[in-house]
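hi! just following up on the protien thing from before. the input was this:
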Amino acid sequence: MDISRRGVLGGLGAACAVGAVGFAGAATVTDGEAVGRLGGDGPGPTGGGSDGADDGPESAAVDPDAPFEARLTGADGADALLFDASDLDRVKGVFAEEGEYLVQVVLPDAGVETFRTRLDEAGVTDDPAAFVVSMTLDGTEVRRVELDGETVDALTGSDWEGVLTLPFGEERVARSVYDRLADS
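and the predicted 3d structure came back as:
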């Protein structure tokens, strides 16, 4: 299953319309510790083409064993898994948009329900502002999101179909996340 053009446009449209889906409009978003700790010589051209042709972002199945996870951390010390690579179906990236570098991940239908259940069981639906989502790659935080009511409402609403749009301030961080998640 590929991430369709319609699905991508729908996911990006929902993120812009709601201002929250995929954490794009969350209260505070940072690239965590990743900017200084991810190795390599940096990414190739955004869009994946190396010959100057813009073929658009690449899409791939997710490697279920990739060392990527998102955890919910509460102000009261709560700590719970939100999702990891094994919960994801597809990854697509890297998009450049308005100074940010986007990676999209897609949860399958069962993963959407699990995601919503984990939000609810952790207490996020009752008090979103008391929670932060920390995403790590190889144990290094690559993304931190302070949740808010609008974001959580969008993620638990019936219109959300499981596409998370993850914006990063650094292209090399976004490229590293994509490369590690993609099952090559």
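The longest helix spans residues 5-18.
The two ends are 15 Å apart (CA to CA).
cheers
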